[in-house]
Amino acid sequence: MAKTNFQYEKRQKELEKKKKAEEKARRKLEAKNNPKPADGSEGDEQEADDADVDADPAAAGDAPAQPQ
């Protein structure tokens, strides 16, 4: 019967650990560089929504604005 190559298996586990640690460090760095708003909403989406709301009353013409 063939011998199991434990050194190979150990090296693969070490490489996997290293890969996971690097991925975690990358995510942590991204989170630090791009903090999200405290309310949980995305800033870009909110700006786009505001632009649409501003354009709607002008498109309606003489019609009164509807309360939201």
Description:
This protein is mostly helical and 68 residues long. It has two helices and no strands. The chain has helices spanning 6-33, 43-60. It starts with 5 loop residues before the first helix and ends in an 8-residue tail after the last helix.
How are the secondary structure elements laid out?
Blueprint: H1 6-33, H2 43-60
Overall, the morphology is: rod-shaped
Q: What is the N-to-C order of secondary-structure elements (H for helix, E for strand)?
A: HH
Helix content: 55-70%
Average of the residue pLDDT scores: 76
Q: Rg to the nearest angstrom?
A: 27 Å
Instruction: Report the strand count.
Output: 0
The number of helices is 2
Distance between the termini: 76 Å
Largest sheet: none
Quick description:
The chain is mainly alpha-helical and 68 residues long. Helices cover 68% and strands 0% of the residues.
Name the descriptors:
68 residues; mainly alpha; rod-shaped
